[in-house]
Design brief:
Elements lengths: L6 H42 L6 H11 L2 H42 L16 H4 L2
Length: about 130
């Protein structure tokens, strides 16, 4: 077995490399082309409001007064709240999913076991929260 590649293998590798590079260029063009099209239509929408005092102009003025660091703070705070709410929902869904099996296994171990009065989602029973 020789380590030297024959001409057909080298031609195939060259063609495969060309196709791969073409696909990478096409992907980049699609990404930035889409961005350019969106920016073009957005500027067209803004031109429609040129010279008119509207609610949109008031909103743009308000947004223009905010500094970049305030935007970052608002984005991070909004992201953190969204993340927290999503995690809470996932935790409660998982608790509800496992509650039935856990109750069955605990009942098998101790049939006289009383309930903790939590809901199947693991939240406080509504009657207990009114006290």
């Amino acid at each position: 077995m020789t380590k030297r590649k024959n001409r057909s293998e080298l031609d195939f590798q060259l063609r495969a490399r060309k196709v791969d590079r073409f696909a990478a260029v096409a992907e980049t063009l699609i990404k930035f082309g889409t961005f350019c099209v969106v920016a073009y239509f957005f500027t067209g929408a803004l031109k429609a409001y040129a010279g008119e005092v509207t609610f949109a102009q008031v909103g743009i003025t308000l947004l223009g007064d905010l500094k970049v660091n305030e935007w970052v703070a608002y984005l991070l705070a909004g992201g953190a709240v969204t993340y927290g709410l999503r995690q809470r929902k996932l935790r409660r869904d998982k608790t509800e999913e496992l509650a039935g099996r856990l109750k069955q296994l605990e009942g098998r171990f101790d049939p006289r076991r009383s309930s903790s009065r939590l809901t199947p989602r693991g939240t406080t029973h509504p009657e207990d929260s009114r006290r």
